[in-house]
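Technical note accompanying the year-one report. For the benefit of new consortium partners, we illustrate the data format agreed upon in the data management plan: each record pairs a sequence with a structure-token string. No post-processing was applied to the example shown here.
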Amino acid sequence: MAEFTGGDDYQAEFDPKAYLEHYKFGEGTWGEEYLNFALKHYCKTFTSGGVKGDTLIDIGSGPTIHQLLSACESFKEIIASDYTDRNRQELEKWLKNEPGVFDWTPVVEYVCELEGNRGKEAEKEMKLRKTIKQVLKCDVHKSNPMHPIILPPADCLVSSLCLEAACKDLNTYRLALKNISSLLKPGGHLVLSGALACSFYVVGPKRFSCLVLREEFLREVLSETDFIIQEFEVLFRDDNFIDDSSDFPGMFFILAQRRK
């Protein structure tokens, strides 16, 4: 079992630019596999008309924006968040369209195609930049993850590849899910996605631990936290392909609603 890498490890050693290399389309990375799976489900979730509102909070955005490309059509305001300074700085640079930022164009093109808006990539990026109003420090281990800021309850929470990286054991995951759900209105939606049965992933030279999650546990913990699961999609990778960058055999995408 990999040694647990906590918040201090992320703050000191997580390199957003190295991480973003996993999200280049056309290079056969695990990030590309994950994007192909997740973006279809984000598109379906946020364009169906059932998940919409004023405010969406993204928990543990990392340096990425793919998880918000469809959501920006259904919410007036998005609040991005992350634990590490460098990830938040990378997001701010993208928001300001600074030179040298990661080029999300192939991903944006793919999302626009999924949404039936091919050729509208520039408008999509502009819309997302306009909709993300804040990038905040977030710690899922605090009862108010945005402490000391107190946010009004949101209509929707998104969290992708975050909790399994932040939590050292299943009990900690339970508490973290409870903490983030305090940011959500009763009746609000949670869109949770990530890696199944993954124990590690590599960013640059650094190996980070990952909490091994199973479908049964996720169903149980969501029910315990007062969520009604509306969709639970799982995709296993071809022939359990494992390389040196990560050992995850499958991916999950969950849409759940907090009990009113």
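Partners are asked to follow this layout when depositing records. Residues 30-47 form the longest helix (18 residues).
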